[in-house]
Amino acid sequence: MKLTTQRTCTGLIIWLSLWFTGQRPACAYSVPSGFSECRSLDACMRSLDSKALTSDGSIGPDEELIAKKLSTFGESAKRELLRRAAGGNAGWRNLSGAVLANWKNWSPSDVPELHAALRLDPGGWMAGPLRTIGTPAAVEVLVEDLPKGSENQTDFALEKLGPRAIPALMPLLENENTAAPAVRVIKLMGDSVVPLQSNWSRIANDSKEPLQRRMAALRAIGALGSKARQSADSIRSLSTSTNPSLRHQTVMTLEAIQSFEPKFNERGQDVSVIDLIANPTKYDGKQVQIIGFLRLEFEGDAIYLHQEDFEHGISRNAIWIDRPVDLSEKQTAEVNNKYVICQGTFRAADHGHMGLFSGALTSITRLESWGYQRQ
Questions:
Q1: Distances, alpha carbon 57 to alpha carbons 62, 112, 130, in Å
Q2: How far apart are CA 174 and CA 186, in angstroms?
């Protein structure tokens, strides 16, 4: 299960680490004492009423145990949980959703009830069973739910469906107002949908296709970022199209696929600019992550300890950065003359232009504005 904004104990990763070391998470519930002895579905459900009163939809070992026990009653138990997952009792909706997330047997006939439950809990646990079913009808339900949130179970389900979800996502991409969540999910799909870019390029270039479908294809290509660079030449001529909408979207797509793209495969060690200045040999050749004031200018790309250090020309209080060659004008404007968070490889012996700086960051993998301000 992917950790998302959907409710979990304290984060599923933390829960798993505690569980496998024999420690019970503090937020885990206790299964009611009568549940283990109940002999009928009705009796078991009644014994869970008290638990439903305090359920917030978190998933832990108790919900797995409940699912295992109730599954012995077969289809009737699933039907009852689905009914409660779409019912008027919020506590039972939460508990039923968490239990059904551990359910093993699903069929296309369950889609209408899962749809009803997901409407009451957008981005919730019912997205998982819909992914398991994976029929066109199930995918349509997930896509309908997609614009209602971000980075939740629906995102995860569609990500794992990969190319199977693309036909249902394309209509969202046709409308600028609904395109953003579809773009978000295609980015998550990554390599699984990269082979589709050639077909999207064909659609974008086909003047016989409806304009909105061509726009959707361009947005899909842009969602792939640098993974779609092989498509740049095939769509470049559209940037001079007589249609202003097509021309604008092509420019946006080209910028997206040719721009610098952060890489988070390896997290650098968090250090301060002061650490690098004081202990250069300690960090030499290592991946580090720093926060400071960025100034990008001819022969002066550097991250300063403070903005005042730049304003007063104190270059020894700065680290030269090897600006990514694919940093676009838009990206440059978003970070220049701002405090940023930057990750790269520290080179103690590289002092930048005219040897003015206290080391350098090369092979930049992250460069983003640091927007935090203390209130």
A1: 12, 21, 18
A2: 14
pTM beyond cutoff 0.70: no
* Alpha-carbon gap, residue 228 to 220, rounded angstroms: 10
- Strand intervals (E) in the chain: 269-270, 287-295, 302-304, 318-321, 338-347, 360-369
- Gyration radius of the chain's alpha carbons: 26
> How is residue 92 annotated by DSSP?
H
* Cα 122–Cα 124–Cα 129 angle in degrees, nearest 5: 115
Residues 156-180 have a mean pLDDT of 95
Closest by CA position to 32, among listed 42, 23, 19, 45? 45
Cα-to-chain-centroid distance, residue 185: 8
Which pLDDT belongs to residue 225?
Answer: 87
| Residue bearing tokens 């199209």 | 241
| Domain residue spans of the chain | 12-105, 188-258, 269-369
How many CB atoms are closer than 10 A to CB 177? Answer: 7
DSSP code, position 134: -
Looking at residue 218, its pLDDT comes to: 97
Fold of 269-369: OB fold (Dihydrolipoamide Acetyltransferase, E2P) (2.40.50)
